[in-house]
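Newbie here. three chains, one complex. Structure please?
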Amino acid sequence: MFIQIEIQTRAKVDLIDITDRIRQAVAESGIGEGVCYLFCPHTTAGIVLNENWDPTVEKDLSMVLDHMVPETMPYRHAEGNAPSHVKSVLVGMDHFIFVHNHTLQLGQWQGVFFADFDGPRRRRVWIRVIKDQDSG
Amino acid sequence: MFIQIEIQTRAKVDLIDITDRIRQAVAESGIGEGVCYLFCPHTTAGIVLNENWDPTVEKDLSMVLDHMVPETMPYRHAEGNAPSHVKSVLVGMDHFIFVHNHTLQLGQWQGVFFADFDGPRRRRVWIRVIKDQDSG
Amino acid sequence: MFIQIEIQTRAKVDLIDITDRIRQAVAESGIGEGVCYLFCPHTTAGIVLNENWDPTVEKDLSMVLDHMVPETMPYRHAEGNAPSHVKSVLVGMDHFIFVHNHTLQLGQWQGVFFADFDGPRRRRVWIRVIKDQDSG
């Protein structure tokens, strides 16, 4: 199953919890055992797996990324969003999560965030859920 | 096949070589051609693919991560482990390795480490080995 | 399908666009729906998904990685390439891209780069394209 979800980000840097939308995609797939793949088709955004219980964690991540990838370096890319490209490479655009017993297998504190580093924009995430043919 | 291995880390920051345990899981799966998926269900730990021949490489990685993600920034997350969350995002919680001829396909110098950034704790890694149905 | 491509890098740090070679591997696989997996079997190189339209983006990425992983820290690894190991962990050695309608599914501005951080060398990338048995 190959589906696309849309996400409207609200700020230049914005992490949006999409865990429930991924769970819904897994439920719709009807697949009991397999892998759920997530792919971000943008070059200035990414997907983050991390704690979604305490919202300060995402603010801290954003602060550290700004420290690591300063806005003021002598970037050559003319569009002014070079740091956003680098941040997306660091967090990753492609992630997977197991499906077991028809359920997305996340750790107790884990959630899935769409991370925009050059918003606000209308963004997309592509999802594939693939069945493990040998596990039923 | 969906299995879980347990790892007891020994320090706040601890990289433990789990390559042999992954090889064993692949052998137990009986799968000759496919993909071995690794997932860390924690938010302050991750999985690292890198050199496991020279143990100084893991110490250098730990030192650079401390440089990139300083302990002393104005973090908001109250539990005091905000840097550990960020480090886990940077190294990644989900990785895969090919299985070919019933063997885990790593490069000559590559190994798999479980990386705890907020230990010592009892940790888990989830493993799925999925067969490529078209390659036998 | 499990294939290997070879890449000759030309400098210490060198990002080479391999998008067309990945597309070719997908075409040769004959697979219409599935996932294309990429794996770098080296410990001082990696694979980057990001913009391949403007070549300044790769130069900016390289500059920021040098900022994040300085050459002059007190590294213990004796071969002098410790920063290259860390950079490979940060960009990742394992990535996947969806295959849909016999086509590699990249975003409008996305491409795939082989990133050498300790070249020039003869390098390899391993590719598997696996069919989604339920999507034809």
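Moderator note: The interface with chain C takes residues 33-35, 48-51, 54, 56-57, 59-61, 63-64, 67-68, 90-92, 95-98, 100, 105-110, 132-135 of chain B (CB under 8 Å). Chain B has a mean pLDDT of 95. Thread marked as resolved.
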